[in-house]
Write a structure and sequence with these properties.
The complex is a heterodimer of chains A (495) and B (93).
Chain A (H helix, E strand, L loop, with lengths): L9 E9 L38 E2 H13 L3 E2 L2 E2 L2 E4 L9 E4 L6 E10 L2 E14 L3 E4 L9 E4 L6 E7 L6 H17 L11 E8 L6 E6 L4 H18 L8 E5 L4 E4 L12 E2 L6 E2 L4 H7 L4 H12 L3 H7 L3 H11 L5 H18 L2 E6 L3 E6 L6 E5 H12 L5 H13 L6 H8 L4 H16 L1 H8 L4 H13 L6 H13 L1
Parallel strand pairs in A: 13-14
Antiparallel strand pairs in A: 1-11, 1-12, 3-7, 4-17, 5-6, 5-16, 7-8, 8-11, 9-10, 12-13, 14-15, 18-19, 19-20
Helix pairs in contact in A: 2-3, 5-6, 6-8, 7-8, 7-9, 8-9, 8-10, 12-14, 12-15, 13-14, 14-15
Chain B lengths: L3 H10 L6 H19 L22 E2 L9 H4 L6 E2 L2 E4 L4
The chains are: A alpha+beta (495), B mainly alpha (93).
The structure holds zinc ion.
Amino acid sequence: MVYENPDGVRIGLEIHIQLNKLKTKMFCGCSTDYHNAAPNTHTCPVCLGLPGALPVLNKKVVEAAIKVGLALEGEIAEETQFHRKNYFYPDLPKGYQITQYDFPIVSNGKIVIEGEDGEHTVGITRAHMEEDPGKLVHIGSIEKSKGVLIDYNRSGVSLIETVTEPDMRSPKEARRFLDKFRNILEYLDVFDGNLEGAMRVDANVSVHWGTRVEVKNISSHKGVERALLYEIMRQKNVIRRGGKVSQETRHFDEGRGVTLSMRTKEEAEDYRYFREPDLMPMRITDWIPAVKETLPELPDAKRTRFIEQYGITDMHAKSLTSKIMLADFYEGVCAKGVDPKIAATWTADVFLGELNYRDLAISSYDGEKIGFIHAKDPRIKNSIKVSDMVELVNLFAEGKISDRAAVEVIRTMLDTAEEKTPSQIIEEKGLFKAEDDLVTKAVAETIAENEAAVQDYLGGTEKSLNFLVGQVMKKTKGTADAKTARDLIIKELKG
Amino acid sequence: MITKEDVEHIGWLARIEISEQETVEYMEKLNSVLGYFGQLDELPTKDVTPTYHVAEIYNVFRDDVVEECLPQEVVLANTEHKQDGAFRVPKIG
Ligand SMILES: [Zn+2]
């Protein structure tokens, strides 16, 4: 099957990611741990752009950029350097941003994603290093702003900007690209995607191979799909009405889910790039082999290994390797000698499914427990121990609990902060399998004792089934699952 | 040659207001500076690699070690325009 791309959609992305795993900013020793700090408490003369201050490059930034370049199978420049991009905006205290221009550190990479019609390669044009500006907060709404407050805590934090080729053919492919990219970055341990503002995306999109429109300000990787769906629909409508899509920059309004035209400046952008005289150029070729040594096993390689080593399905392997912390947790569980196939089902299908259902995102793994945090409310967090998952998998494998009971245990572990082992939860909730036998027995008794209702039901009176279920519930003192009871009765009577 | 429009554009980029009379004045001055540097164009540089730094130094790095930051009151000491620990500026755009 080949994807026809009926609307001739082409999407390219520009992704800014913060190297927020580094301890300090790009050009100064200010800490990057500013997310809960008061404004302007993580600054110094360098990141405030005070006269005479000199930037000195954090070695870890270059190392991270090389790692990213290698992971994207790109070319690492033999010689690379910084430029100044000049423009005035209050979030930029120096009047220029230190970035890279015609000698980016990485070029010509790629990421293979699961596309509309199977494996699909998205080209990476370039990736370069640059500094983050400060943060602006409007007093009141943007439209009725009375003024702007500036916090330079973020100013000078290291960014990697990655530019793709316009190779994505649908919003879904764009989201899959971002998911995969984010996953790779987390494997490389240079990036924590759960922190606010960690990933910011601009997209360019065109339909029917026509004019490209830029969509800016997509702040979440989940917002990308919505922004693009809207923009594609808008462009198609313009064409349907006989109009022409104009080349412009639009702003994504996340709250309303629409893209809005930004007032276009009369003057074309004119950044007057020139080489940054305060920073020396870099020659990094000799450094690459050492960085290569430190490169971890990447998602695709891990997925293949999981299939071979644990004998699990490709679906499970894909799902388990979609987050490095989940993959490590799964291996931690398997290392305790459980059945890897059963462990894969309970980790990839049930545990992950229940997390997604609750909007919980995996946020940590320390070798003993896997932590997760609510996507919108970071105060909601919890964790599950490796030993708990091991116990659960073993209880299930030994046939001591039903799959329904095992699901119930996982739900309980996710929903309560109390530290209880699966055995304790099973004990407290009376979930041991004996209960299923009890229900079977109660069903048999109910059928034997209620001849009339059974005949009514078989004669087509659905209501009688409810009566029979009620009798089973009564016999089991309400400990049976109503649906189980119902299914069992139907099975007994209708086969 | 720098035109009047160029001067106006440069003034806009630098967010400097330039009067009609100044525009002409700056145009002449900038052209004189450009003309002076233009003499360099006469030198044969076809086979010369550009020099961006006089010192041939590469790879100047610092380790990823946290240093002390400035206290907030010091950061804001030079401005009267502040609010809640932040710099306050007029609305943009
Ligand atoms: Zn600083």
